[in-house]
Amino acid sequence: RLYCFTKVVGAKTTTSILHHWYLNGKLTASVTLPVNSASWRTWSSKTIEPDESGDWMVEVLTADGNAMDSILFLVQ
How many whole angstroms separate alpha carbon 25 and alpha carbon 23? Predict the structure, then answer.
């Protein structure tokens, strides 16, 4: 199981963010996470199956779909 942690600072209202998990460029999971204060930490996780080796990326998006950050990693 892999985890992606995100710290949000400066949120002006209660909102949400998205974690999009990609394997070799294909979206495998989309997780909506609440943001309930101006300074908030949240996370999502993904169980990696034995046949899911390759190039992974987690893209962090605002509630309206704007990219905030992305994390790239390789699972062998």
Answer: 5
